[in-house]
């Protein structure tokens, strides 16, 4: 059973709506509206252990999942929801050993998910034109202990993508259609291009650009997530839900027949 060490991150779980990603250190306290907890008391205990606050309120120390790190990232930009990231990972066929180009890095949420999927033998090459965003992303990636699988690159992918023969290119940026020609060059045969766009106008321009290049299996989708309240005699969909977040467009590179 894996135990908690000094310097490890834990997710303190109070209830479904209140969780806190904190780093365990000797003699360190974490203060909440339910009293403070002594984080050092968790050292040597297994993940999942209870921890009482100074007011006698019970927390549980969970091992952070990649989805927890995504939701709890220090953010300067809007991050993708786990519902979208999960679908992207499946569509991109990302796994250990894959090489992926990403733009832009933003706060590094998607970068962390990609890096977690390609480790220990793969690499994520993440481009960002804003150095302030990249510094925030670097902190988030380092905290998730995934920097070994990421190369952060300051640059504009509408002008250059250094990598070739990559398994996937994923674009979370304002003008993905401008990158389609370079993405096609960077991808290996059968590699996947994916874009995430908040507006349908962006999608229309992107799809038009993709159709001008050798891609097949072109598809655009939108994912809606609705939680269910489960309770005796009053089980029903929750009033609030995660509706529109963005449109995901994917396509696969094919090779043009060489002229004789």
Q: Would you give an account of this structure?
A:
The chain has 260 residues and is an alpha/beta fold. It has two domains: 9-64, Vcp-like ATPase, Chain A, domain 2, CATH 3.10.330; 68-253, Vaccinia Virus protein VP39 (Rossmann fold). Helix content is 22%, strand content 31%. The chain has a seven-stranded mixed sheet with strand order 9-8-7-10-11-15-12, sandwiched between helices. Strands 2-1-6-5 form a four-stranded antiparallel sheet, with no helix packed on it. Helix 4 (131-143) links the parallel strand 8 (123-128) and strand 9. The radius of gyration is 21 Å and the shape is globular. The model has no long low-confidence stretch (mean pLDDT 94).
Topology (SSEs and partners):
Blueprint (H helix, E strand, L loop, with lengths): L8 E7 L2 E6 L5 E4 L2 E4 L11 E3 L5 E5 L3 H6 L10 H11 L6 E5 L5 H10 L4 E6 L2 H13 L6 E5 L11 E6 L8 H7 E11 L2 H11 L4 E8 L5 E2 L6 E2 L9 E7 L7
Parallel strand pairs: 7-8, 7-10, 8-9, 10-11
Antiparallel strand pairs: 1-2, 1-6, 3-4, 5-6, 11-15, 12-15, 13-14
